[in-house]
Amino acid sequence: MSLKDLLPPGTYDEIKQEAHDNASSAPQSPKGQGPLLVSCPYCHKQIVYSTDNPFRPFCSERCKMLDLGAWANEERTVAGNDINVDEDADLLNDPNLPVRNLPSHE
């Protein structure tokens, strides 16, 4: 399934056309005054967010790789459930669970 399948009919084509129309210029700041400036997620240096920067939203390959390393070393994480918790374990004792007699391999 692709993004196109998830959007209402015609929306994908509209977004695609708008992206091609705006591809020749850098995004404008919210006030419409010059190019869009963003902070590098790693070093917080202000940079122009543009397709000319292959490392966007980072300012450089160095910051991109340092950030990736921080994720790989688990210095950065996304909050979530413990992966060792078996959420389906309680279902095994459910009296409404259908019982299936599978053939044994003897």
Summarize the structure.
With 106 residues, this protein is mostly helical.
| CATH architecture assignment of one domain | 2-Layer Sandwich
State the helicity in percent bands.
Answer: 25-40%
Order of helices and strands: HHEEH
Largest sheet features:
2 strands, antiparallel
The CATH topology of one domain is: Erythroid Transcription Factor GATA-1, Chain A
Beta-strand content estimate: 5-15%
Structural class: mainly alpha
Quick one: CATH class of one domain?
Alpha Beta
Write out the CATH superfamily name of one domain. Erythroid Transcription Factor GATA-1, subunit A
Shape: flat
Distance between the termini: 41 Å
| Radius of gyration, in angstroms, nearest whole number | 24 Å
Number of helices: 3
Q: Stretches where pLDDT falls below 50 for ≥5 residues?
A: none
Key features?
3 helices; Erythroid Transcription Factor GATA-1, Chain A; mainly alpha
What does this structure look like?
The protein is mainly alpha-helical. It has three helices and two strands, in the order ααββα. It has helices spanning 3-6, 11-22, 61-72; strands at 37-39, 46-48. The model has no long low-confidence stretch (mean pLDDT 78). 26% of the residues lie in helices and 6% in strands. The protein is flat, with a radius of gyration of 24 Å. The protein has a domain at 26-73: Erythroid Transcription Factor GATA-1, subunit A (Erythroid Transcription Factor GATA-1, Chain A).
